[in-house]
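Now for my pick.
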Amino acid sequence: MKFAKLKVYLLPALLAAALSPLCGPAAAAWFGSRAEARAKQPVAPLPRVEVAVVKRLSSVQQGITTTSTLQALEEVILNPKVTGRIDNLVVAKGDLVEAGDTLVVLDSRNQEAEYNSMQAQVAVSKAELSQSAVTLADAKRELDRYGRLRKSGYATQQEYDARSTTYQAAVAANAKAAAQVKQAQANLDAQAVLLSEYQLKAPIKGVILDDYDLTLGALVKDATNVLRIGRVDRLKARVDIPERDMGRLRLGMDAVLTFESLSGQTFYGTVTLIDPYINTSTRTIGAEITVDNQATGFKLRPGMFARVLLVETSEENPLVIPSEALRADGSVMVIRDGRAAIQKVVTGAATGGMVTVSGGLQIGEDVVVSGGNNVAEGTEVEFVITAE
């Protein structure tokens, strides 16, 4: 029994002796090392998402999209009506010309010599006509005088008849001289027209689009293309619209033309012509858009490729978000106070990779466009704004 009591008394003493090292400085060091170890454990990174900022555009249009190539509103190719060698190239590619300007002069020395000869012939013919008129007047006076003398008995009938014959001959000679003047003048006029064909003039106001690399001395004929002239103050863009969309076309509808060659700049035109027939080969209907190039500062040129939107509806000053921000259920994920939130939105027109929003969002809010598929609502996230 004494031994049992000793065991009971020894247990508390042994336990106190065993724990005494943990209750002093050694205990503090041990617990501190455990805390430091926990602090050194890696923290899980926040989910990373890409966001776009809700912004406002001046307008968003919807309609028929297509492509086209710009053309001059009017265009002519200048061909000579005569054969000759180029004596003078008055203009070059890119020059502005007015209707009636002389553009090319062909060697016309032979024709000029012929013209001068004909001009001299006209002068001779007119002189002969003047002389015949004098002769006719003299013959008429003699005839009249002998008529009076015959009546008075101072001249015979034979003498009168001789004067009458002379007069008739003078009348015929005068008529012939007049006809010769008329013919000579007609020949001269025809030669003048022919001579004018050796000067090629601009039929319209416009720009020299092509000079076909012709040089001085080049021989040109009636089938030779000498110059191409186009009116570029206004341009046209021909488009072909599928037959199924024919009912959407209307005269006067606005068109927006975008040019990649001008860094995506947009310009505006109007539908001014709709073909009255369907192309049975392509099942399309053609339309023509007119663009005021003068208003653009002549930035546009024939031959430029354009992406075209024929505007059916236009929404002014809408809020827009990238189309990839829309989730399958029509909602978007927004970042508010650093955490993801699901927001229902009311959307409208979609164009150019953007969607208009008329409800649920405010300008300047951040909507997730990438990386949000596995992020639960309320999750704290790290986000970066995508480049626009």
About this structure: The helical segments are 2-19, 25-39, 109-152, 157-196.
